[in-house]
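Appendix B, record 7
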Amino acid sequence: MIADMAVEVEAGRLMCLHAAQLKDQGVRFTIEASMAKLFASEMVNRVVYKALQVHGGYGYIQDFPVERLYRDARVFTIYEGTSEIQRNIIANALLR
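Structure tokens (predicted):
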């Protein structure tokens, strides 16, 4: 699980860096930014769920940061454009 978590985090990081690089170059980056936002926001939910599994019952105790991360992760799929909105942006741009 930890290896899978690391792979997902690295993939999300690289997608964000790629979108940022395109922006810095003055190139249109709408699709890449939406893809990065979609992937990263859904990835964080998968990763934090696996972290909760790794911690077992302790993951639910408020003394451990995993419990707060688990609660907070959900907002990333909603904040600054829901996952569905990001999917619409990507699909519309690809179909043009």
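Remarks on this record: The helical segments are 2-24, 30-55, 65-73, 83-95. Residues 30-55 form the longest helix (26 residues).
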